[in-house]
């Protein structure tokens, strides 16, 4: 269930570019920060492993012991089940043809929860459970901010769905995701988004309970609200995924600092167009993704900020454009375009860690807490699970 990078190396100066790098020192710092927050708030932390899609990274989150995780594909669920994980939430709306794979995991002893927000989904989950003789644990998605899917707490379908699931032995709880928090540009906006996320989920759970329907799980979370939450009374678990790596979108919101970004992509200078003020690299959107999430923020970071191979930011240097395999680096804010000969290696910090990670088969791992070398040593190579 894994793919293996074709090349391993002693330092970041060795592998063929472009390739993804994880700074384990920064990742552990990010992991510890949210773990301490969840512990303080008295909730279970259920990391969303769609960002890293790596058993190695998940082991960092859990101290090497399989604990609750969230996934975004059944391939992730299957790979993590093969890795010993038995408490998994599949946080994308379920459809009928995926249920055989869900049931196969349940029969293996994996608690795999599914997500739904319609009477139709509840009906086919309930029917499949009856036919299989095993309840498919299901959570009802609640819409707390109009971002994507889910039911409003006053939707009559909420109780209908709850009854259908309960009668089939499938009702597990409610789940919400404050997707609009990714546009919350101040600490107060994020605090209010976290409060609304919590209040909405708890209100939905209380409405179901008032109708005699038991609710075991009240699940909330996004990376911005997880870090902004002050009170999670009534919530049982907190979800987040991006926080393990962070990215420029999170830094632009103020959730983290640039120095907290644990994921980068190493590229090589392959050309110059001085008449345009361009440095050309071999890392285009196939290496960085097309995500331009910072374009909606006060500070547009293009396709990524540029550092040297040791991770030191190069003032004013940004990856401003990308084609499939070519990246264009330019200077801004009055900065002078540096003289970077062909063959020079650089690292680019991504807009969206989840999207950038998905472009690569694995991660070359360094530790900035142990070395300040111009070409940091590669400690190991971590694979990503299949299904990416």
TrEMBL record:
Residues 262-367 form the D-serine dehydratase-like domain. Keywords: Lyase. Belongs to the DSD1 family. This is DSD1 family PLP-dependent enzyme.
